[in-house]
Amino acid sequence: MDHIAFDPGWWVSAVELPVLGGMALMIWRARQESDHRIDELEHRLDVGLGQAREALAAYKLEVAKSYATTGYLKDVEQRLTEHLVRIEGKLDGCQSCAK
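RESULT FIELD:
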């Protein structure tokens, strides 16, 4: 029975180096893929943020267009005051009739 001597150099060159090379390749590919996905997500975020800003600007413009002006509010206040004075006058007239 012949004894085969264990040669560590053979083990390193035949098994460990290819395994370590494969692991290094896997890590490199995973890093490349994660970098690509991060770039893609950053782009999506930038696009979404731009759309949100545009929508907010459009909403602000719409609010500014439909916002009641001071002149309009004074006009409405004057008309309401006139109506209330007329109603008050009618109520005062009805109270004097009831006495």
